[in-house]
């Protein structure tokens, strides 16, 4: 079963984020806390959303953490899937497909034409995504500005540093 996340699910979702970070060989870069995620999901102006796949005893076995994007060309929002994770014991049960289908349903119901995400080039989940009908975007190269270069650029305009 897929359902929106509840405050009681936050510890399990944070744990899954750390499991995903370990799988992606980036555990040392993961600093998410339960307090941060609770504020992001359930604060006065949520900008992050989450669906969980739950077992028959209502325990989270997978999660899809997402947020809205906006396309100036389409003139409407879309969904960006930040993290999709299904615990190893629950893989092959259809939980991952159901989570992505739930986000596709959000898009269709709201008139959003895009559901997008990024996946590491070595991740075997690419076969799963291909089977869903998704395809890689080869004409766009992701960029990121973070850390010292972000701070330096902000300071170059006299902006406050974080």
UniProtKB/TrEMBL annotation:
UniProt-recorded name of the protein: Acetyltransferase
GO molecular function terms listed in the Swiss-Prot or TrEMBL record: N-acetyltransferase activity
One Pfam family here: Acetyltransf_1
Domain named N-acetyltransferase: residues: 1-151
Family annotation (CDD domains): NAT_SF (cd04301)
Sequence similarity: Belongs to the acetyltransferase family.
The organism's place on the tree of life at top rank: Bacteria
Gene3D superfamilies: 3.40.630.30
Key word Transferase present: yes
InterPro entries: Acyl_CoA_acyltransferase, Diverse_Substrate_AcTransf, GNAT_dom
Keywords carried by this UniProt record: Acyltransferase, Transferase
